């Protein structure tokens, strides 16, 4: 492969350097391009390009030379190529977020730089030539509206939005004191239930504020640090100050000093600090419409996985942080967080038919359920997230009325989850003029190859046309995006990020999105979730262990008989256990892990395998993927004669017991294995690490970022089972000769979690985002409005009619099986 020395000079574009690179290997390249075009029009991916190039170059040394040079580097950076003989158009991605498009003629190897529009048109030629040639085909270009907004320039800065926005705010407010007037106006607008906060109209200019702060600081210096705010509240009011600065003289003084420094000479550090202290957020709405959103008996039901766990933990963490901040601000307001989901009358034994439910472990937070309405009244049955679009507009209107009623006022922040939640959040935030955040968990687009260009073929099953347009609308409308990892936004060197895949795409016949989202937009932030540390705590904390679960867990792991909850058995109880737990989806690759284990004798001699997922009777499943995975599991257990070494346990819904289960696996000196073909984040990975269980996790997606390979756990390649199972076997071989080896990884995993993956860190970051982006949207009011208009147009003219085409099932007919 390409050497570092062969890498492009950054000042050179690929269009500039490719002609010379092709010239140097002209003979081989002519053969290679002849091969590319020989099969006519098609889309080629990197592996195909490489395979066919290998075939075109016979000599091994020549091959090494070509691939080791600049050409090899350019080819390796190619994401896809479109063959329209005699041309081959390449989409090349030298670095995360950076794309170049070139067209090479197979006849004479001439190179031409092309625009994204031209590249997308080439792609369309394969599927819909008329559309590609239609002069008036709809082109969507959000960049045209964003031209004056500041952007990041470095791949490495992607996801650091708050830090960058505070720099941009700093430069806007710099130079002279009057430039800080927008900040003064913003402070004047802060209130809680109509009561002014921070300042009142006595202080209406930056100069007056600066002077008043000096006087107040002198006054505060003379007070004991812990003097409560009410003791000097009256005096402060006379000067124009209201509540919100702090609960004690010391805290008020610190906040005032920070603001004074900002007024004197703004700097990003103080700016960020100031916004983290402002009382801007009290009421939060979190949308998660699809699936069965509940606090018990729901995990494992269709469309109901980590997102539910994430949101419930998120609410607890946000409420805790809000309560702390409100206390420190010297206020006694009651924060309210409301999770708005769908009310499902046919609730399958869950509480999803209950309108309001208090959230366990919180003081003031609730789940609020709003039904889907159709022309025939309330829809009773569950609907797949892929079919959810026709209900969302009405749902958002009904939800808005209910929320205003429940909160007795407007929320300060609206956060959406996944496509449906983000679209509804957009509609509500737009209507109420409230700051919006979005969370994807997983964007479906990258999961299915060529899902944009093939949308017509896939639409009956997945309704991707609705989904991709809804995602693009929400991404553009939102004030900030909360991502779990960098890869979610901008991928890795090799693989584009989930958001990045919305930079440009095309839905022939509908629209060509030439600029969908820019991953260099400072709205992108990384705030990784944590795992509930009251449930997932280290196995070593003996006094906290939930020993009452031990008999049941012993039975679950080791009893000999098959029943509804488990099949298979472990003959040798002394062996460590490798453990995995996930929904039984193809992408989770539990069957892959079972096969690796079956094939690897060394691993089978060293450890037992325990997997939790799905259930055993395929005839009871309504999900096509799950059915095939269940059948495959049975076949693998048979094929590799795994009984005696494997325990397959059905999906588990008791989180407390699951926590203890991870710890019992740690007692066996085992490991957690997450073998997914792709994982957006991977909550099980951090749950296992929190319990002190050494973890092997897929290198495809979020886990590759959570674990530092060989330090806090291990990466495994889901596409190379032999290598992965040997890596696990090597670990257990080493543990046999060095008793400290296992503990080293147990401890390092925990350390990694405590440094980066806790809900406390998350809540702090998200509330800071809410605060700073609320001001940022104020500063960019006019631009935001212009963009909103464009979005409304796109929503009204495209999304609405597409959503209308999604069939509405009748409550009588059984639900159609859906892929998950
Ligand atoms: N989970 C569970 N029982 C199961 C399978 C999974 O309680 O049988 C939980 C698991 O502990 C985790 C969540 O469901 O909290 C799955 O989240 P993850 O991010 O791993 O995957 P997702 O299902 O969201 O794709
Ligand atoms: C959805 C997924 O697919 C997982 O990877 C995440 O961990 C989960 O949501 C929570 O964000």
Outline the structure in words.
With 820 residues, the chain is an alpha/beta fold. It folds into 4 domains: 14-114, Nuclear Transport Factor 2, Chain: A; 175-265, Four Helix Bundle (Hemerythrin (Met), subunit A) (Up-down Bundle); 283-530 and 765-804, Rossmann fold (3-Layer(aba) Sandwich); 542-757, Glycogen Phosphorylase B (Rossmann fold, 3-Layer(aba) Sandwich), CATH 3.40.50.2000. The protein is built from 31 helices and 27 strands. The strands form 6 sheets. The protein has an 8-stranded mixed sheet with strand order 11-12-10-9-15-16-17-20, sandwiched between helices. The protein has a 7-stranded mixed sheet with strand order 21-24-23-22-25-26-27, with helices on both faces. A 5-stranded antiparallel sheet has the order 1-2-3-4-5, sandwiched between helices. A hairpin with a 2-residue loop joins strand 3 and strand 4 (98-105). The longest helix is centred in the C-terminal third of the chain and has 24 residues, at 781-804. The structure holds uridine-5'-diphosphate and 1,5-anhydro-D-arabino-hex-1-enitol (LCN). 1,5-anhydro-D-arabino-hex-1-enitol binds next to helix 15. Pfam families: Glycos_transf_1 (PF00534), GT-B_Sucrose_synth (PF00862), SUS_EPBD (PF24862), SUS_N (PF24861).
Order of strands, main sheet, comes to 11-12-10-9-15-16-17-20
* Outline type: globular
Q: Beta-strand level of the residues, as a percent range?
A: 5-15%
CATH architecture of the largest domain: 3-Layer(aba) Sandwich
Secondary structure: helix percent: 40-55%
* C-alpha Rg (nearest Å): 29 Å
In total, the number of domains comes to: 4
Which topology of the largest domain does CATH recognise?
Rossmann fold
Mean pLDDT: 95
The helix/strand class is alpha/beta
Gap between N and C termini: 37 Å
Any idea of the CATH class of the largest domain? Alpha Beta
* Largest beta-sheet characterization: 8 strands, mixed
């Amino acid at each position: 492969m390409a050497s570092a020395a062969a890498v492009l000079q950054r000042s050179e574009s690929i269009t500039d350097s490719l002609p010379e690179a092709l010239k140097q290997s002209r003979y081989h390249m002519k053969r290679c391009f002849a091969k590319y075009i020989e099969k006519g029009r098609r889309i080629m991916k990197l592996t195909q390009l490489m395979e066919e190039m290998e075939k075109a170059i016979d000599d091994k040394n020549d091959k090494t030379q070509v691939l080791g040079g600049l050409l090899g580097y350019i080819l390796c950076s190619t994401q896809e190529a479109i063959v329209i003989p005699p041309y081959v158009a390449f989409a090349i991605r030298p670095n995360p977020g950076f794309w170049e498009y070139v067209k090479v003629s197979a006849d004479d190897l001439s190179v031409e730089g092309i625009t994204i529009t031209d590249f997308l048109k080439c792609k369309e030629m394969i599927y819909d030539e008329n559309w590609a040639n239609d002069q008036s085909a709809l082109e969507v270009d959000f960049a045209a509206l964003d031209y004056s907004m500041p952007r990041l320039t470095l791949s490495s800065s992607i996801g650091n939005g708050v830090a960058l926005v505070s720099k941009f705010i700093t430069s806007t407010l710099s130079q002279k004191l009057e430039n800080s007037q927008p900040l003064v106006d913003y402070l004047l607008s802060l209130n809680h239930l109509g009561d002014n906060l921070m300042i009142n109209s006595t202080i209406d200019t930056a100069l007056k504020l600066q002077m008043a702060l000096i006087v107040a600081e002198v006054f505060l210096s003379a007070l004991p640090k812990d003097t409560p705010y009410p003791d000097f509240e009256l005096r402060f009011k006379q000067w124009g100050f209201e509540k919100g600065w702090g609960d004690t003289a010391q805290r008020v003084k610190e906040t005032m000093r920070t603001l004074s420094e900002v007024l004197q000479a703004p700097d990003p550090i103080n700016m960020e600090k100031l916004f983290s202290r402002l009382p801007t957020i009290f009421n939060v709405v979190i949308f998660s419409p699809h699936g069965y959103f509940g606090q018990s008996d729901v995990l494992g039901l269709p469309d109901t996985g980590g997102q539910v766990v994430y949101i419930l933990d998120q609410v607890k963490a946000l409420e805790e942080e809000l309560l702390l901040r409100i206390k420190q601000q010297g206020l006694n307001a009651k924060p309210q967080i409301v999770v708005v989901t769908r009310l499902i009358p046919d609730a399958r034994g869950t509480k999803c038919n209950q309108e309001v439910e208090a959230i366990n472990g919180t003081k003031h937070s609730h789940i609020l359920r709003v039904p889907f309405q159709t022309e025939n009244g309330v829809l009773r049955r569950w609907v797949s997230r892929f079919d959810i679009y026709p209900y969302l507009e009405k749902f958002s209107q009904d939800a808005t009325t209910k929320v205003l009623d429940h909160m007795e006022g407007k929320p300060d922040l609206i956060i959406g989850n996944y496509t449906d939640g983000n679209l509804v959040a957009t509609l509500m935030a737009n209507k109420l003029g409230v700051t919006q955040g979005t969370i994807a968990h997983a964007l479906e687009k990258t999961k299915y190859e060529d899902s944009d260009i093939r949308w017509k073929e896939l639409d009956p099953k997945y309704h991707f046309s609705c989904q991709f347009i809804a995602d693009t609308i929400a991404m553009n409308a939102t004030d900030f995006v909360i991502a779990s990892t960098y890869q979610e936004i901008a991928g890795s060197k090799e693989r584009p990020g989930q958001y990045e895949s919305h930079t440009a795409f095309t839905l022939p016949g509908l629209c060509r999105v030439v600029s969908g989202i820019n991953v260099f937009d400072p709205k992108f932030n990384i705030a990784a979730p944590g795992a509930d540390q009251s449930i997932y705590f280290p196995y070593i904390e003996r006094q906290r262990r939930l020993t009452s679960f031990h008999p049941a867990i012993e039975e679950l792991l080791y009893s000999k008989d098959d029943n509804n909850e488990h099949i298979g058995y472990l003959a040798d109880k002394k062996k460590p256990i490798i453990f995995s737990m996930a929904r039984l989806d193809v992408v989770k690759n539990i069957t892959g892990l079972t096969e690796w284990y079956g094939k690897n004798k060394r691993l089978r001699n060293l450890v037992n395998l325990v997997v939790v997922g799905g259930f055993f009777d395929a005839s009871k499943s309504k999900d096509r993927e799950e059915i095939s995975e269940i059948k495959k599991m049975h076949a693998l257990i048979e094929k590799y004669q795994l009984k005696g070494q494997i325990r397959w346990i059905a999906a588990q819904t008791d989180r407390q017991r699951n926590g203890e289960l991870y710890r019992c696996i740690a007692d066996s000196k085992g490991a957690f294995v997450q073998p997914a073909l792709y994982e957006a984040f991977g909550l099980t990975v951090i749950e296992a690490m929190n319990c002190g269980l050494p973890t092997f996790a897929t290198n495809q997606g979020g886990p590759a970022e959570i674990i530092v390979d060989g330090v806090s756990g291990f990466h495994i390649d889901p596409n190379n089972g032999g290598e992965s199972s040997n890596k696990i076997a090597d670990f257990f071989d080493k543990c046999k000769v060095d008793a400290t080896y296992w503990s080293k990884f147990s401890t390092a995993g925990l350390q990694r979690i405590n440094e980066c993956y806790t809900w406390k860190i998350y809540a702090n970051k998200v509330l800071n985002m809410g605060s700073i982006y609320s001001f940022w949207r104020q500063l960019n009011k006019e631009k935001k409005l212009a963009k909103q208009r464009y979005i409304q147009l796109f929503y009204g003219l495209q999304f609405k009619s597409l959503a209308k085409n999604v069939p509405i099932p009748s409550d009588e007919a059984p639900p159609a099986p859906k892929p998950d």
